[in-house]
Amino acid sequence: MGAMVIVVSVLLIGLAAGAIFVRSLGSAVILLGTVSLLVATTFLLLAAPDVAITEAAIGSALTTLVYVLALKRTNSIDSLDDDGGRQAGKGTAAGQKSGSAAGGSHA
Amino acid sequence: MRKVIGVLLIVSFAFFVFTLVMRDLWVEDPTAVRTLGQAAIEETIPQSGAANTVTAIVVQFRGLDTLGEVTVLFLSALGVALLSGEFAGRGLKEVFRDDGGFILYYGARLVLPIIILVGVYIVAHGHLSPGGGFPGGVLVATAVYAVLMTGVKKELSTRIMAVIEGFAGLAFVALGLLGLLSDRFSFLANILPKGSLGMVFSAGIIPLIYAAVGTKVAAELSTLVTSLTGSDYASADTTAQGGKR
Amino acid sequence: MISISAVLYSTSLILILLGLYGVLTRKNLIRVVISLDVVDLGVNIFLVTIGYVRDGRAPIYLADAQTSLADQASRMVDPLPQSLVLTAIVIGFGVTAVALTLLMRLYERKGTVMVSDLRGLKW
Q1: Nearest CA distance, A92 vs chain C (angstrom)
Q2: Is A64 a member of any domain?
């Protein structure tokens, strides 16, 4: 039981760091949904089934849906965001070139 | 530069929390529940008749906070609906480029009654097993999303959902006001008979309140996503007549 | 053996700090909302861990079990933080939904969701 808690905690921290630092926004949203399911597992390990059901339903189903809608409406669903000041392109070769140029000049 | 300041702020915050707060929490697991929680555990069956302690706290001992939570959810759905007024008319065709296809269409129609059934079950047994009004309402709303996302229906009328939501909220407050008419004279008092432990028809007004909450949450969340995707039936109608800008 | 409370307190604290760093340093506003969500999750884990009792069980009575009700009551986890977290999860979703809708409207007006492109914000 302690070993399970340690494994889930390490996964939690790793995937949450991934959701914040990964370059593609679509992957970040999917990672957030996975983190939410791991948090629901943590709640189960803490003997809180009510909270676990609520977190799994709201955090991983609803929140991911609203994020995907937001990504689609801001045209970010396949953009790579290297945090270089300009929202890098739409995942094509031209977009990656402009993204790396902006990242290089703003480093 | 910005990242350096960020790291410095985080490190100082972590130092502050570790020395002041975690010093007392870095211990072994506690072996006994604190006094207020112990009182809640012991008073659940005598005062409310529910088998789920968390439900008894959420609906009866702290029932007014649940009313506030329902209000906050209503306000956020209202805010989203107001802010997404401009998405009207540029509905699902802009968000999803094509229909779901054969498998999604018929698969959604097959799975829909099961989702609704599980959602209603979770709401109805909120006082006996984990769950309650909120996750059950979310599940029923997920059924509505399945309808929208898989192309079973392109538009939904939010007028019916708004009426259902209004009546469910009214039912919650009316059940609370009934407590004022009883001899205990307090809002949201548990006035119906408590029944025997473990039956669905037990625990006074707790199943009724959770039914009202579940209906309200389901209608609210359906309205939220319907207005976000712009598939509101009424707005599509007015846009066809020349837009309402 | 291992104190589950200590492990989970540290995990929730690291999650809160990670999310806080993301809110402070990321330029894409959608990623700022994602980091805010991570802070929310960390705080909820922290709250539920407060009520954990060693070898505790879920706070639900079983009417037809072999053990008596008093025996079940002596082994339960604290239900009070769980009811608070139930409310907090729902309200956290409300905040996320409104924030993302604001970002969608911002994109319609200005065409960007990067903080560095919006005038008046000097970060």
Answers
A1: 19
A2: yes
Q: How many CB atoms lie within 10 A of CB B191?
A: 16
- Residue A107 lies inside a defined structural domain of this protein: no
Provide the domain count of chain A: 1
Q: What is the pLDDT of residue B37?
A: 86
Partners of B84 on chain C (C-beta within 8 Å) are 101, 104-105
Give the ipTM of the model, two decimals please.
0.88
- Residue B42, chain C, CB below 8 Å: the answer is yes
For residue C9, tell me if it sits in a domain. yes
Give dist(CA C8, CA B244) in Å, integer: 53
Query: Tokens representing B217?
Result: 């949450």
Does residue C123 form part of some domain? no
A14 part of a folded domain = yes
**Distance of alpha carbon B82 from alpha carbon B88, whole angstroms:** 11
pLDDT digits (tens, 9 = 90+) for C4-21: 888 898 899 999 999 999
Question: What pLDDT digit, counting tens, does each position of B80-109 carry?
Answer: 988 887 665 555 555 566 666 788 888 888
Contact B55, B206 (CB under 8 A): yes
Please write the tens of the pLDDT for every residue from B6-51: 888 888 888 887 777 676 666 677 777 788 888 888 888 888 888 8
Residues of B in contact with A69 (CB under 8 A): 95, 225, 228-229
Global pTM reads 0.87
Residues spanned by the domain of C63: 4-115
Find the domain containing A28 and state its range: 2-95
